[in-house]
Amino acid sequence: MSFGLDSRMLRSAAAIAVFAAIGMPVLAEEISVVSGATGSDLQDFPAIVKPWEDKTGNKVTVVPMPSSTSDQFGQYRLWLAAGATDIDLYQTDVIWAPQLADHFVDLTEAAKDLIPANFPSIIQSQTVNGKLVALPIFTDAPALYYRKDLLEKYGVEVPKTWDELTAAATKIQEGERAAGSGDFWGYVFQGNAYEGLTCNALEWVKSFGGGQIVEADGTISVNNPKAVKALETAAGWVGTISPEGLHAYQEEEARGVWQTGNAAFMRNWPYAYALGDGADSAVKGKFAVTTLPVGAEGDSSAATLGGWNIAVSKYSQHQEAAISLAVYLAGPEAQKMRAIMETHLPTIQALYDDPEIAEKSPIIPQWKSVFMNAVPRPSAPTLGKYNEVSSKFWSAVHETLSGNGSAADNLAGLEADLTDLKGDAW
Fold first, then answer.
1. 7-133+306-371: CATH homologous superfamily?
2. Of 77, 82, 143, 274, which is least surrounded by CB within 10 A?
3. What span, in angstroms and rounded, lies between the C-alpha atoms of 81 and 8?
4. Which of 369, 343, 358, 184 is nearest to 275 (CA)?
5. Burial environment of residue 282 by CB neighbours within 10 A (0 to 12, 13 to 18, 19 or more)
C-alpha cells in the first residue's frame, strides 16, 4: 500500500538505498517531535518510531512538554511565532488546527492515499482553508468507567441518566464507607480550571440539551435553562459524591483515586483503561465502561471529541524527512501499535475490525459506540478566539463548582463576555 510519498521523498529514499548498497555512509537526519505525551505514551514512543528509523536511517528525538494542554498550547504559540527551526513536528490537540494553521505544512498531497482510510469528520477537523495542516494519529472520546463488582454488590444498574448516576454513586459510597472505606467516593472527574473542564462541562450541557456553547453558525447559545440545570447538577456532586478537592483534579488525579479502588464511577479517556487493568491496579478485572449519561430520557449522550494529530512545521530544516515521519505516525502500522500498547482509538476505520487489536485491546471495538456520540468543541466557529472562549467557559464553570455564584448568574456573565469577545464576527 502506498501512503502518498511525494517524488522528493521517493528520491531521498532511493538515494539512501543506493548509498547503502555501495557501502557509502548515509547522513542520518535527527528529527525532533514536540509532544505532551506522558507516562506509557512517552515510554512507548521509541518502539513506535523504530520501524521508521530502521527504514530511513534517521533518528527521532522527543521534546517533552507539560501534561496540561493549555500549557502546551501556550508554548507552541511562542515557538511558532518565533519561527523555531529546531522543532520539526508538533503533536497537536484536535482543537488547535484553526489557530496554528499558518505555521504548518499542507499535508494533503503527501497523505492522499491515507486520507480515505480515516473517519471523514476527523480529517475535516484538521483541514483549514483547504489545507490539511495535521494528520490524525489517534482519536479520543471519554466514557463512564464503573465498578462492575460494586454495582452487583449493591444491586445497582448501569446508570443511563445523570440523576441515576447520582443515586447509584450515593448508595455505593454510603455502603463502602459504612464498611470501613472512609476515603471512598461515588464519582470522580476533572474539575480543575483548564481545558479538561471545558470537555466535562460541554458533555453535561450538551447531554441536557443545552447546546454546544457556541453553535456551528457562530451563535452564542450557552446561556439557557438546560445549560443552567446541567451545571447545577454537577455542582451538587462536589462535597457529596465527589471530593471537595476535585476543583484541582485533572485526568491523572481522577485516575489515581479510581485506580486505587476508591471510587465507584469515573469519567476519563481511553488511556485509563489499560492502566486500570494493569497488574498493579486495585481495580483490575473489576470494571467496565459505558457511554456517558444523559440529562433525561430522550436526550443524547455526549462525549467530547478529543484526539491528537501530527503537524510539520513550515520552519523545519528537515521537511522531507519530517513529512515522511508524519505520514508513518498517522499510518496503519503506528496506529495499530498505539491501539495495542496504549489503548488509543484509531482514526483509521478498518482497524476497529482488526482481529489482533480485538484480542489484545478488546476495549477498542467496544469504544466505537462511545466515539459515535462524540461532540466537537466550538473551535471551528470561533476560529482564533477559541482558546479565549474555552478559558471563559471553564472559568464560569469552575466558579459554579466552587460555589462562587449561581449557575444562572455565571452563565449570564459568560454570555456577556463571549458577546464582547465576538464583536462583529468571530
1. Periplasmic binding protein-like II (3.40.190.10)
2. 82
3. 28
4. 343
5. exposed
Compute the distance between CA of residue 123 and CA of residue 178 in angstroms, rounded to an integer.
51
Nearest-CA neighbor of 222 among 373, 344, 397, 63? Answer: 397
Q: Where are the domains of the chain?
A: 7-133+306-371, 143-304+376-422
Please tell me which residue, 121 or 284, carries the higher pLDDT value.
284
Cα gap 18→74, rounded to integer Å: 43
Q: Indicate if the alpha-carbon torsion angle 243, 245, 246, 247 is positive or negative.
A: positive
Work out the number of other CB atoms within 10 angstroms of the CB of residue 143: 26
Strands 59-64 and 30-35, by their bridges, are: parallel
Q: 118 forms bridges with which residues in the sheet? A: 348
For residue 189, what is its C-alpha cell? 472527574
DSSP 154-188: TT-PPP-BHHHHHHHHHHHHHHHHHTT-TT-EEEE
Assigned CATH topology for domain 143-304+376-422: D-Maltodextrin-Binding Protein; domain 2 (3.40.190)
| Grid cell at residue 35 | 509532544
Look at residue 66 and give its three-state secondary structure: coil
Helix, strand counts (H, E) of the chain: 18, 13
Q: Above 70 in pLDDT, residue 395?
A: yes
Residue 15 pLDDT > 90, yes or no? no
Tell whether the model's pLDDT for residue 417 goes beyond 70: yes
Position 8 scores a pLDDT of 41
Residue from 237, 268, 271, 275 nearest 254 by CA: 268
Hey, how many other C-beta atoms are within 10 angstroms of the C-beta on 5?
21
> Nearest Cα to 390, choosing from 245, 214, 190?
214
Helix %, strand %, coil % of the chain (to 5) = 50, 15, 35
pTM of this structure: 0.82
Pairing of strands 306-312, 135-140: antiparallel
Identify residue 51 by its one-letter amino acid code. Answer: P
- As given in the structure block, the three cell numbers for residue 360 are 489484545
Q: Which of 370, 371, 390, 395 is nearest to 380 (CA)?
A: 390
Q: What's the average model confidence in pLDDT over 364-375?
A: 83
Mean of the per-residue pLDDT values of the chain: 92
Q: Let me know if the fold of 7-133+306-371 is the same as that of 143-304+376-422.
A: yes
